[in-house]
Each structure stands twice: as C-alpha cells, then as structure tokens.
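Posting here for the record, re: Broken Fe4S4 cluster.
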Amino acid sequence: MAEKARSVDRACIELMEETKNFTIGSCWDRAEKQQPQCGFGLGGICCRICSMGPCQINPFGDEPKRGVCGADADTIAARNFIRMIAGGAAAHSDHGRGVAEVFQLAAKGEAPGYGIKDEQKLLQLAMDFGVEIGDRSVQDIAIDVGEVAMGIFGSQHGPIPFLKRAPLKRQALWRELGVEPRGVDREIVEIMHRTHIGVDMDPENLMLQGTRAALGDGWGGSMLATELQDILFHTPTPTLSRANLGVLEAEQVNIVIHGHEPLLSEMIVAVSQEPEMLKKAKAAGAKGINLAGICCTANEILMRHGVPLAGNFLQQESAIATGAVEAMVVDIQCLFASLPKVAECYHTKVITTAAKAKIPGATHIQFEEHDALNTARKIVNAAIENFPNRGKVRIPDVECDLIAGFSHETINYLLGGVFRASYKPLNDNIINGRIRGVAGVVGCNNTKCTHDNDHLTVVKELIANDVIVLQTGCSAIACAKEGLMLPEAAAKHAGPGLAEVCETVGIPPVLHMGSCVDNSRILMAAAAVVKEGGLGDDISDLPAAGSAPEWMSEKAISIGHYFVASGVYTVFGATFPTLGAPGFTDLLFNKYEKIVGGKWDFEPDPLAHARKMIDHIDKKRRALGLDKAKERVLMDMAARRELEKEFEEQPAG
Ligand code: SF4
Ligand code: MSK
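Prediction output follows.
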C-alpha cells in the first residue's frame, strides 16, 4: 500500500515514516499483514455460533450451501448482523447507563464535582418521564429523573418513553410492526437468545428483533446518554476550536483524552488548569498543561469546552508517534489494543480508567465517581511527572480552526431566534429549494479506506449540491480538520443555495452535532423538522439521507439500523457484512423500505455514494411535489434581501 493511499491527512502522512519504528507496526502495516482477508467473514457467511462449526457457506451457489445444523447463508448472515446490532446497542447503552449512575449520585449530592448544569433540560426530561415538577427542588426532581432513566434500561414491558418524540405516524408504524422496545437491555438479551443455535432461523423475523434493539439504542440508551450528559455538563452551544495533531504543544505537558464517556474527561478539564497543577507542570520544566482529544471523548469535551481535537480513530497511534504526549488517557470504546506497545517506543503513559476497559501493558488508574476530581488530579500528576522523560518531539504543523457545538436545540435557536426557536426557516429553505435536503454523515475510520478521504469526498459532494450536512463521531473530526466546519467553507465548497443560507445565518455548511451517542440529536432534529410541517408527516418523507463512508464498528451498524428503522435511507461505504447472503441483503437493501420506509445501501466509491444520497433526496423532493421549487436561479441582491427578511421575520415559532 503506497503511503499516500493510507491517509489524506497531512499530519498522518508526515508521521508515516516515524510509525515505521513501531515494534508492532502501525494499524496500516497490520492491515497489510491481514491480507487477503477471509471472504466468508467479509460476506457474513461464516457461522461459529456452536461448536459443530465454524460453518462456511459457498457464496457461488456450490456446496456447502448449509451449515451442519442446516442454516443457510441468509440465516447465518441475519444472525451475524443482528448480533452486531446487539454489540453496538450494548456499547452505547452501557455508556448511557454509566452516565445515569453518575447522574443519580450527582442528584443525591454524592458525587463531588458533578451537578445539574442545564435545569431547563432537566425539567423537559421530567415532563417526558412523567416526573412531578410542581414546586419541588431541582435536586428532588433530578433524583426521580435518574430513577426513571435507570429503569428504562431494565424495563420489561415498555414502550420506552422517548419513542413519543418521534412523529405520530412513525410511532404507529412501530406499534403495528411490534418493534417498540420494551426495555433497552431486554432487546439486546433477546437477540443473544434468538441467535443461539436452534432458535430463530427466519431472517425477516430476526431482523424485526434487530430493529427493536436498534430502536432501543437510538431512542433509548444513546438518547439517554446525550440528555443526561447535557443536564450534567450543559447542552452544547457553538464554540470555536482547532483540529489535528498540530494542536499538541511542544513546550507543554500534553494529555490526550480518548474514548467515549465524558464523565472523567470533564473532571480532567476542570482540574488541569488549577494553579497547583500549573505550578507542578512548571517545576517539571513545562510551560503549561495542554489537553486534546481523540474519537468521541474528544467530541464531547470539544462541544462543551472547546478543547481541541488531536484527531480521529486512525490517528490514535500517530498521536503517540509525535513523542509529545505525556499521557493518553482512555475510557471506553474504539481504543486500539496496540496503544501500550506503541507507547513502549516513546515515553507516553497509556492510562486506562474504566474497570470494564483494561489493556495489557497500560497503567490503570481507576475512575472513582465518588472522588472524580481526585482521580483526575492523579492522572494529570502522572502526566506532569512524565514530562521530563520526553525524547525527540515531532509535532506536524497541521491544524485547522473549526466551530462545533450544534445541538439540535442550538440549530433551532440559530435558525429561529432566541425568543421563539423554530425549524421553520430550515423547512422553508428546503421547500423553496435553496437547501436541497439534509444528510447525516457519521461514523468511523477504517483501514479499508484511505483515511478521511471517503468522508471528505462524500461531504464535499453533498454540500456542493446544496445538501446541508449534520455530523458526529470521527466523520465530524475528518471534516473539521479539512476546514469544512467554518462559515467560510460555505462560499468555498457549498452550492449557491446552501451558501446563501449559511451566509445569512452565519453557520458552516457542515454542522458538528457531537459524539456517537449524539446521533440521537440527529433523530431529534429530524423529528422536529417533521413536526414543523410542510415536508410530509414522517421522517421517511423528508428529503434526507444517512451515511457512514468509513464505518468499522458494531456501534455503526446499530446506528445505521436505527436510522433505517426511523425511516432514513442509509448508505455505508468500506464494506458491508451481509454481501455473501443475497436474500438477506435484498431484505435490507430493498424490501425493508416497504416495511419501515427507510433502507440500507452500500457504495464503497465515495462519489457514487454521495450521488446515491442526492438521488434519494431528489426522489423524496419529487414525492413532496418540491422538484419544481428546486430549479433555482442564482440569487441577485433583491433575492438576498428577501432571504434576510425571511430570517428577520422568523422569531415566531
Ligand atoms: Fe454451523 Fe449451525 Fe453451529 Fe452455526 S449454528 S456453527 S451453522 S452448526
Ligand atoms: S469514535 S465508533 S471510531 S465514529 Fe465514536 Fe469514531 Fe466510530 Fe469510534
């Protein structure tokens, strides 16, 4: 693999030479050593659910056509696929549960350092959960909200309460199909039961359970994580920051925070600038303490504190290769097992902090919720003490400004005004064709793709065609590094209609909505757009599409499927884990649209991927009778004034 093909990120490319010194190679080297990868595994037609297997099905129709138990390719692929949903939903939801536990402690005053920062959202949640507000104290309301939140994970009868946030038509469809989640955990457990040897063999029936579990993630575990984090740490608002490895500071103690849960990283942010800590850093020879993030912990503390992004998933090893990272502090999910081995070549301390996520060779400092500030101080101290051990530093001079912090509430305010927030201007501009449609582009990096290339190609093509892009996860980081999250990106990259709207409102054409669990914000934005009116009466009517161009994790499959089950056409790049089973793939790519109004698709070529999304958006516009409005003329001054007037007249909602 030529180096250029590994990444389009200049910082990564600059460090490729250095990563050759890793004793275990870089992720790209290891990916090469894995070639050729097993075709049965790639096609989803290898089953190792019982010890009569592993059984593999010949995808070309010759023998073997069935496993020892008689399962065919479609049954095997369906079982594997919904097990991926279970894995992803479990990861998001267990994250949500961890937040709910700290929320409960904070509400009771048993977790110093944590408190209720967004009272308005707490009251909103209390109303959603049927918790009495009256003249009760914030603390009492929070205790009850925490109780209900914890209960949703283990509830047996459902339906889970956030389903009520979806359009009424969608709720009715879920009810009719029998896919309303009864409880977050129950649906995951039922997947594990149904996919055990000798239980559910029917791909359609298996997929209905996959649907129920995925909805329990998107409208359950993930949404709870987002909402409770917002209440504990405040709902994000637009914030200026920077992205890429150039944000590391040559003369400061660098602490890179990596993973997904903001519980500990919020405390590290709080203590890292304490005078005592800064004094210690200076005594160790550093000019200060610099925090930066990788993956979704990065997105969380970026959205709320403007802490810069060091990079995305495939940059975790490169960050260590700068020689400038005193501590890489990890919590849960998307951590490379290689980190301690890579760190052996440098002075970096890899510090694990979660009892459920340890890595052989790493230092473990257990995160104690009851004493979180002191856990954070211990970690910052360990980083400071490591500063004198630095060797050669090679920080690429690559970074880019960005604006993040677009919660769905913020988009509402920005569009409609602070006093009477509204999605109406967005709907109006979709109806009049200045904005062609809305796309959610999310997900990971994958060594099967040229790092970041597919995210950037898809997103640039979408905005050039007047499609506004909502982002989370590592896809958001890729676009931030490219400068697409700056208002000026509209003039440079967006089509004329989208550029006009962005310029008038002062927003970038690509909006950073947060971390992986914050894909729930995209669901809420979609529901709000439907409720605003004029674009049909269900999410499946919207000129909208979803995408994960470089996905790699089971979480991405769960997210993809809750988008599909919510009515969204969703395209994945890189690879697709069912292609060895044509019947099951046809169910996902075609028949599912008739069942839930959304469907899966796969397109590894990023330009064709974007074109498919645009074609779908156009199909939905035609169905809404909006195709004529889309024939846009370039805006003259009079039209610009008219647009500005529309926004000015928009305080009411
Ligand atoms: Fe083979 Fe069936 Fe066992 Fe799977 S469950 S390993 S297909 S015998
Ligand atoms: S971090 S799940 S690599 S988006 Fe959420 Fe990035 Fe994918 Fe992890």
